[in-house]
Amino acid sequence: METKIKVLGSGCKSCHQLYDNALKAVEGMDIEVEYITDLQKIMEYGAMSMPALVVNEQLVSSGKVLKSAEIVKIIGK
After folding, report:
1. How many CB atoms lie within 10 A of CB 4?
2. What's the predicted TM-score (pTM) here?
3. Which pLDDT belongs to residue 1?
4. Largest Cα–Cα distance in the chain?
5. Cβ atoms < 10 Å from Cβ of 6
6. Scanning 9, 33, 45, 77, which has the fewest C-beta atoms within 10 Å of its C-beta?
7. What is the mean pLDDT of residues 49-61?
8. What is the DSSP letter of 1?
9. Is 76 in contact with 68 (CB distance < 8 Å)?
10. Is the pLDDT of residue 61 over 80?
11. Over the stretch 2-41, which tens digit does the pLDDT of each residue have?
């Protein structure tokens, strides 16, 4: 199954940081990282605080900037 990652955010500094960390985390893997700023879509995932991380349509983190290594661990599950 192809892994898909989405970073949900408003475009703030920490949202961009999470996006950059997600890109670093999947370097060399065939994984697509999408950055979503559309509030409607963000609400559909139930994310109450930004930035948020979605892996394969599951909300796995919200309200904090995960490090690349933490993202790699989440993907590995």
Report:
1. 13
2. 0.93
3. 63
4. 32
5. 23
6. 77
7. 96
8. -
9. no
10. yes
11. 889 999 999 999 999 999 999 999 999 999 999 999 999 9
If you search the block for the tokens 């490090």, which residue do you land on? 67
The answer to whether the CB of 75 falls within 8 A of the CB of 61 is: no
- For residue 33 the two structure tokens come to 């990282």
* One-letter identity of residue 7: V
Q: State the SS3 of 10-77.
A: CCCHHHHHHHHHHHHHCCCCCCEEEEECCHHHHHHCCCCCCCEEEECCEEEEECCCCCHHHHHHHHHC
- Look-up of token digits 């559909």: 44
The answer to whether 76 and 26 are in contact (CB under 8 A) is: no
